[in-house]
Amino acid sequence: MKPLIEMNRRRFVGLGALAAGASLLPSAASAAEAPVTAHSLADLPYAFDALEPHIDAKTMTIHHGKHHATYVAGLNAALAKAPDLAAQSLDKLLANLPSVTDETLRAPLRNHGGGHWNHTFFWNTLTPAGKGGEPSEELAVAIQAAFGSMDGFKKTFGEAAAKRFGSGWAWLVVDGGKLKITSTPNQDNPLMKGLVPNADLGTPLLGLDVWEHAYYLHYQNRRADYISAWWNIVNWKEVSKRLTDAG
Ligand code: MN3
After folding, report:
1. What is the pLDDT of residues 167-225, one digit of tens each?
2. Global confidence as pTM
3. Which of 76, 77, 185, 222 suits a disulfide with 168, CB 3.0-4.6 Å?
4. Phi-psi region for residue 38, left (φ > 0), alpha (ψ -120 to 50) or beta?
5. CA–CA distance from 10 to each of 30, 62, 91 (Å)?
6. How many angstroms does the Cα of residue 147 sit away from the middle of ligand 1?
7. Which three-class secondary structure state does DSSP give residue 173?
């Protein structure tokens, strides 16, 4: 799979760049010793109100500008203490988390790195209603093979999202050419091999954020209504492309 986050990364090398990125860095001295790679928050690929009425503008504004931004800042703060890891793509970093033995480092990388990856993936999974197209033939055939029908797929995926206790995500992944539905707690995701128990891991194609911050302002406790509305804004062109890219 192509690294998702590469396009969002900036490399701070000179003193001028240091000034611009100073708040992300532990100190000018350590950044001057070696180039420090910092992750940044990309703009949404659509306006904050573009997903209405299914996801409201205020939820999108806070979700992106506060929640996602916090994950980016937390990831950069953790990587500032581990410059050897900062050189890796985020995809690789998450896949290699079990090799990070210092739990005080691994926990923020897992929570904030997962949060950054998951939200970037989530924004790109969505598009204004009516613009997402249909699943490609390749994806439609794979859904039929794994779940019997599109309705069967949506039912099983919706159940995984509804049953995730507390905060977490539901996922459609491809693993060895086969589609599977799984869910993860917190900001874990299917890239975190060796860390997530009871999860079917693979290459993520579709992910649904079921943290209350994703829906509570509009839907309050009605997570099921959020899940069913969410299907209206899935970007099937992007999901289909991810299946093709997964090879
Ligand atoms: Mn979220």
Report:
1. 999 999 999 999 999 999 999 999 998 888 777 789 999 999 999 999 999 999 999 99
2. 0.86
3. 185
4. beta
5. 17, 23, 16
6. 27
7. strand
Which protein residues have a CB closer than 5 Å to ligand 1 (ion)? 209, 211, 214
Tokens encoding 31: 């950044």
Distance (Å) of CA 174 to CA 1, 190, 215, 247:
11, 10, 27, 10
- State how far the Cα of 199 lies from the Cα of 182, in Å rounded to an integer: 6
- Under 8 Å between Cβ of 217 and 59: yes
Q: How far is the CA of 63 from the centre of ligand 1 (A)?
A: 6
Listed in sequence order, the residues at least 6 apart from 76 whose beta carbon sits closer than 8 Å to its beta carbon are 24, 25, 38, 39
Phi/psi of residue 67, nearest 5 degrees: -65, -55
Q: Are strands 36-39 and 168-175 parallel, antiparallel or unpaired?
A: unpaired
φ, ψ for residue 10, nearest 5 deg: -125, 150
CA–centroid distance, 31 to ligand 1, in Å, is 30
Q: What does the alpha-carbon distance between residue 106 and residue 173 come to, in Å, rounded to a whole number?
A: 24
CA of 16 to the centre of ligand 1 (A): 33
